[in-house]
Amino acid sequence: MTLSTTSNLVGERTGKIVKEIWEDLMDDKVSKIGVWGMGGIGKTTIMSHINNKLQEKPNKFNDVIWVTVSQPLDLFKLQTEIATALKQSLPENEDKVRRPGRLLGMLKAKEKFVLILDDMWEAFPLQEIGIPEPSEENGCKLVITTRLYRVCRSMKCKQVAVELLSKQEAFNLFIDGVGSSILQVPILNKEIINEVVEECGCLPLAIVTVAASMSGEEEIYEWQNALNELRGRLRSLNDVDTKVFGRLEFSYHRLKDEKLQQCFLYCAQYPEDFAIPKDKLIDYWIAEGFIDEVKDVPAKYDRGHTILNRLVNWCLLESAEDDSCVKMHDLIRDMALRITSKSPLFMVKAGLRLLKFPSEQEWEENLERVSLMENEIEEIPSNMSPHCEILSTLLLQRNKNLQRIPECFFVHMNGLKVLNLSHTDIEVLPSSISDLTNLRSLLLRWCGRLKRVPSLAKLLALQYLDLEGTWIEEVLECMEMLENLSHLYLSSLQLKKFPTGILPRLRNLYKLKLSFGNEALRETVEEAASLSDGLDYFEGCFSKLKDFNRYVKSTDGRGSKNYCLVLSESWMYYMFIRDLITDLEVDKSVRLFACKICEREEPIVLPEDVQYLEMIRVDDVASLNDVLPREQGLVNIGKFSHDLKVLRFHYCHNLKNLFSLRKEAD
């Protein structure tokens, strides 16, 4: 796996460290290497370059495996992520004896490998995980990065210390970030630039963030003010760690725009080292009202991506391996959490494997945002009713054992705008949700036991409603009144009733996902098609060819701006695996999954502007003649040739030719 790096290697010392690590990797006598140094000093950047060099150049290793460990140490999660990096999987319910043995077998099958464990905070026995002990005999290598020397020592690694930059290296890195043209500005002297650089303490992360915030500034008073601010922030701070935060906070305060600052701080609610999906983050920002200066949804997304680009350019966020995501450096996140421990006040306990819900004393009245996502919380005390009138976001998703929320829980949360309960085992929602009149985003995705949602008649501000993968049996009461709804995702496996006439009243829909696999929604196929012109994205899952064709014909062969149409007789199974399928939201796609299309009375009708056609386990197709339209017995590929970009086939066992040249009877 090649990693994206946001920083170039800088300085003679850093070059020597890279050379030393590379030589150790090539030296059979060195099996374990520990790269250590303070946060933000460049350990991950150094190892990213080593990783990429190993990937690009032929060498003696069969595989390079990179896993970010982070804190708190979770051995189960670490096993899972190593297996995932190997493109394999481990059973979740396997016992503690067999699981390490299975992972050990996967790694031994690779023979010679390099395992890079980034951001370790605790030592652990390798055999407890299932990692073979690296040795000269097996040719395997382990490289860890850590802030703590004792971790290197406990893991019996050869230690490689990463030190601060020299003053000249720090100056060069700063100029790289701010732009060399700054040296040509007549009114700016090199002395004041040097003074700003010195206040960064020769720490690479502080240098690049401060430099990014000063890029484009050419007035002497701006530089003098920046210098005064930096000195002012650092003057009252005594220890090394708080001075680091002071330098990083300078870049945050340089954002100046309060809403831009709020957008940045919002990212700290995700767990450490989390890949944050850009569009979902922007959805939160929109629901929170951070992007209210523009009115229509496309303009809001444009504004959201502009904000993301600015935060990345200012080095407050990082590009992730997946282009659709961003990440937050753990030290930047620590700085953001330091800010949100005062004002605005956040409670963030995300990704900590908590079993117990925070006590009522922790729910302070001035809390604005709470993130308890990605934990193992099983229950909320039955009489808990926190008095948090200004709380605007509550993130509880992926507490998979959470089954019940007390009736009184939301009574004093009238300011709530975002509520995410996705991927929990909630069976019944409290009726107090019905009174959350400021709620804009209600996310219940894959609440697989949820059968009923209370009335939403008062929730007229609601913009996002995600009921994908729930078990609700009837459409929500007064749903047709939700005229501000811009995102509706509905694919209940047990839906028995969905009256016609509701969809056309939702005039502001921007994204719509529906599953027509049960009778309740099949009657709304034409209604869904009638909305296609105004939608940015439509996803429809059909279990019957007749309904699929009816939708395509109702759109005159051309769907919404972007769409994904799925035909699957095993549509329930498809719903379970859809999140595992990559490239789902490509521009205009059709997926045929585990279905028969040749043994039907009518041929399949494809949208004329389809760009992506994928067939998975479609066993009755012998060639594309069976899928594309025919004229006078011949396949009319010209009808699609201008738009069709990608064809994919998986497990289509009877597919023999892409095209058959023989003329077929109509």
Describe this structure in words.
This is Disease resistance protein. The structure is a single chain. By secondary structure, the chain is of the alpha/beta class. The chain contains 19 helices and 23 strands. The strands form four sheets. Strands 9-10-11-12-13-14-15-16-17-18-19-20-23 form a 13-stranded parallel beta sheet, sandwiched between helices. Helix 1 (12-26) packs across helix 2 (43-56). It is globular and about 75 Å long. The mean pLDDT is 90.
Give the gist of this structure.
The chain is α/β, with parallel strands linked by helices.
Helix content: 25-40%
Distance between the termini: 50 Å
Rg on CA atoms, Å: 28 Å
Mean pLDDT score: 90
Q: Write down how many β-strands occur, each being a DSSP E stretch of 2 or more residues.
A: 23
The outline comes out as: globular
Structural class: alpha/beta
* Main sheet strand line-up: 9-10-11-12-13-14-15-16-17-18-19-20-23
Protein name: Disease resistance protein
